[in-house]
Structures are given as C-alpha cells and as structure tokens.
Write a structure and sequence with these properties.
single chain, transmembrane, Probable membrane transporter protein, membrane, TM_pro_TauE-like
Length: 264
C-alpha cells in the first residue's frame, strides 16, 4: 500500500511536470501510468485519471483567467455543450470491454503523438491572419466541435486539451494563447463529468486520486518554472515526449491486441 502511494505521487508528478513543461498532451499519460505503474484496473484507472486531470486543469485555468487569457463566452459554451458529449461518452466507455477500450486508447495515443509532432513544426499565425467567423456560424461550429470532443473525452477518460485547442481555433479564430487558456475550462469540466459518471459506478480510487493530484500539482509547478528557462528547447522536449507516447502506445497495443483477435 505504501509502495502504491509512492508510485501514485511520482506518476502524478510526471504528468503534471510534463503538462507544465510542454503545455499539453501530458494528460494522455495519466491512464497508462495508473494502469501499469500504480496497478489499477482499466476502468478504475480511467475514472481516477479523469478526476486527477480535472483538478489539475481547473487549477491551471485559474492562472490563465487571472492573466486574461480566457475568452469567457466561447469557453463557457464549449464546456457546457461538451459536458453532454462527455457524459454520453463516459456511459459508453463504462460498458465497453476493458481490453478493447485500452487498445483504442492506444490508437488515440498514436494520433496524439502525431499531432504533437505537427504542432512542434507549425508556426503560429500572426494576429492579422486569424479569421473570425460570423456569430451564427461561429456558434454552430463551437457546438459541433464541443459535442465531438466531449464524446471522445468521456469515452477515453481524458481531458482532451489536445483536441479542444484545435477545436476552438477552428470554430472561433481566436489567438492560440486564448485557445489554450479557454480550453482548460472544458478540460476540467469534461474530466469532472467523466469522473462523476465513473464514481457513480464505484470506479474511482479516491485515495490514489488524491495522491495523484498532489503529485501533479507539485510537478506542474516545477514544469512551469523550468519551461520559463528553456525557451526554444521546448520544441525538442515536445518531440521527445511524443516519442515516449509512441513507445507507451505500442506497449498498450501489444498487451491488448488479443481483444480484437490481433495477437500473434
């Protein structure tokens, strides 16, 4: 039990540190660490990870809000609509075979790794290049994006920031910094919705969640401090982390391929 507590704190610290250092994608590691390092069962790992991601997201959102990096109308609309999608996705996720769910989770991890690499090569658009859709089309795009991302977030028990940020950019044309800050409200709301759904079925380990959250907050602070001193090297760290995501995803695909009859 003591060993599990230590592993939970260390795993949470690693996720928080990564999020603070490279600004996204770290939450995709929450479930694999809870599953293979801490030793939780698949559905419990997803429910517990969703709660930890939610708390850390709300904490970081508060900092962005104080800095003025939140577009409140779009953030609230995306989070509110997306919660319905997250609740639906969580319901399906709980009833889905655990091994198959983890296999599909690993496929998603590969997609995240690719997106992270593409993000590292992409150049941010200048303020004048941002296109702001008209009000009606903007609202419809936000609603559609929120529903789609919410379903994926709930199904896999992830915060979904790597999907929410592009969704906000696509549907609103807001600057990237505002999209990052605004996305955290949805990340927190989606994670909390998923966690409540899983908790109602007894699929959240509250002790491990508290230890994971504590480690994540400490790691996130250290990651943000280090990020301030690294400058352009963050792109290299982003590629290294994407490589780690690919390695973990490959292991998960191998471990759970039998669920789809793909084992050698």
């Amino acid at each position: 039990m003591v060993l599990q507590s230590v592993l939970a704190v260390l795993s949470g610290s690693l996720v928080g540190f990564t999020l603070g250092l490279i600004g996204g994608g770290g939450s995709i590691m929450a479930t694999p660490l809870l599953l293979y390092v801490v030793g939780l069962q698949p559905h419990v790992a997803i429910g517990t990870g969703a709660l930890a991601v939610s708390v850390n997201a709300f904490t970081n959102f508060a900092g962005h809000a104080r800095a003025g990096n939140v577009r409140w109308r779009d953030a609230v609309l995306f989070a509110t609509v997306g919660v319905a999608g997250a609740a639906t996705g969580a319901w399906f996720g709980k009833s889905f075979d655990g091994q198959r769910l983890l296999f599909l989770f690993a496929v998603l991890m590969v997609a995240v790794g690719i997106l992270m690499l593409r993000r590292g090569r992409a150049q941010p658009a200048a303020p004048g290049e941002q296109q702001d859709p008209d009000a009606g089309r903007r609202t419809m795009l936000v609603v559609a994006s929120a529903l789609g991302v919410g379903v994926l977030s709930g199904f896999f028990g992830i915060g979904g920031g790597f999907l929410i940020v592009p969704g906000l950019l696509f549907s609103t044309g807001m600057p990237i910094l505002a999209a990052v800050g605004s996305s955290l409200l949805a990340v927190g709301a989606f994670g909390l919705t998923t966690a409540v759904s899983y908790a109602s079925s007894g699929l959240v380990n509250w002790v491990v969640a508290a230890e994971y959250i504590a480690g994540g907050l400490a790691g996130g602070y250290l990651g943000m401090q280090l990020a301030c001193h690294l400058g352009s090297r963050k792109a290299t760290l982003n590629r290294i982390f994407a490589g780690l995501v690919f390695v973990v995803a490959s292991y998960m695909l191998y471990r759970n391929a039998a669920a789809f009859g793909l084992a050698p």
